[in-house]
Amino acid sequence: MEFKPKTEWPNCPQWLLDATTENEKVHVDKYGYVTWWHGTWWNSTWEGGTWHSGTWHSGTWENGTWKGGTWEGGTWEDGTWQGGTWCDGTWTKGTWKHGIWYDGVWYDGEWYGGVWKNGTWEDGMWEDGTWEDGTWEIGIWEDGTWKGGTWGEGTWKNGTWKAGIWYDGTWLNGVWKNGVWLDGTWKDGRWKNGTWETGTWLNGTWHGGTWHGGTWEKGMTGLRSKYEPFVITKSRTVKVGCREKTPAEWREWLLGTEEYVTSRGTEAFAYLHAHILAACVYAEELEKCLKTLDIKGK
Hints:
single chain; 298 residues; alpha/beta; 26-stranded mixed sheet; 12-stranded parallel sheet; 14% helix; elongated
């Protein structure tokens, strides 16, 4: 396939001739189909064809296939992105296969793979890939890895959530490693760590973290309560929030009527009560075991 400047092709479409370009190397077949091999696109409207490499600064992409290169800014209306680097701009709809997205606004379309660095996702279907940071407004997440950012609402089907803030939506399955859950519905999956503020837990496995409130239907749970008790091994005391007591002092307090923040006679206090007792037993048994081994705890 021969590539040369656009003006050397007698059947070059008018939209390409009108575009502001520089050092372009293109091929135009007898039907007027454009294959862009290399060069710089400064401004205008791309109406169709295949882009292999080069730099796009501004303008509107109506349709076609992007195979590689750097997109600096502009509006993508529709088409297929197969690879390359997106620096900034507006994506209206289309199919993203692979590449790196640095910033911009995504309105709709299908994302199949690649790395999302930052930006705003308004809606669409995420099939797989890595999300590093940014704002997710709504959409469907099929699979992939979420490393940080803000989730507004939508449906999470599977994948790994490592950190970030979840505002609302439905979680179907996957692994939650850390972050803050503010509200929504959890249907199944594994929760490793993090803070749960409120929402509805329907099923799944809770390994650890802080539970502030909400509705628990069923599932497997480790120790969970609003103020997670910690054992300070050196002093063999148990710390809950900003309060620190010996196991004996906590048992005496649990039998009394004094309240700090969580009201007695509530479900939240029942979880807290059980969690404090478990921490007290851990502290006492740790002391016994270390004495038997003649080891000083650290």
